[in-house]
Amino acid sequence: MDYDAQLRLQAFLDGELPEAETSEVANWVARDREAAAQLEELRNTGKALAGLEAGIQLPESREFFWSKVRREIQRLEMLAPKSAPTSRFAQWRRFLVPASALALVFVAGILLIQPVGQIGRTPAGDIETALSDAGAFTYRDYTAGTTLVWLSYPADNEIAESDEMGTVE
Amino acid sequence: MAAFEELVARHRDKIYARAYSMMRNEEEAIDLSQEAWVKGWQRLRQFQGESSFGTWMTRIVINLCLDQLRKQKRQRTESIEAMDEESGGVERQMPVITVNPTAGLERGELRQRIDRALGQLSYEHRTVLVLHEFEEMEYKEIAKTMDCSIGTVMSRLFYARRKLAVLLADLKKQDSV
Fold this sequence. Notes:
By secondary structure, chain A is mostly helical. Helices cover 64% and strands 7% of the residues of chain A. Chain A is elongated and about 135 Å long.
């Protein structure tokens, strides 16, 4: 019997042959004693192996084996969150660095702007306080000894009683 | 985790038995079945219930065993004997074993003989046999699992069966002397 015929016989035993070939091989086995003997040998090995695993038991107690599995699961779970915060922190740091730089610039800007606002508390600023309007602005010419104050609407109404546009020396 | 513990208790023998059938080594089988349970826990969300939980776990342990066996194979030098075994060797030409070599044996004795015979097969032949006989995989599925052609699966399976028959017959002869 050639090798291909042997493999065909095996495929017949394992139910892997196409339907058309199955009856053909069945007829061949029925009339060929060598083929029938070969098929029987293949079948016997299958029978010998049947149920072999059923008697195999894990040689460790339930508690001991489970404790090993549980420990390993817990160990791996402890490792996983440790690496996660590192990367999360790195992400936060990437965001925080430019954000803090921006905040620094903003605070510095506020601090620089504030003294200008405080001009209103200087003697010249007294005029603005008196007018109590943000729409007013002052021009001083020290060489000419002149100070001009512009008042815009609605502040114009507020100062109407005193002066429409005053020149203060 | 208590529910998972219960699953481990229920299926641990089956998973270990499959690992042992493939590895033929108690310690390795214990380690690999433990690793399979840890992997099972990690991938629990992937279990879709398409097969039974036991079958799903068995596939995990089979893949772990195959990885381990491939690693071991890479580490050892290929011998001429192994190459001969791959192509079919002399067993293919040997006369058919007409008498059932396991007939009349008690279960324990039979197990011992088969254990010894399986231990003499190369991992490729043993794995094909285990996947076909125990896992009831079709040729196509075995080929996919072992990353080889269907022709190779058929060839390996045939050789493994023949070799097993010869080994069992030899063992019977030795015992009767």
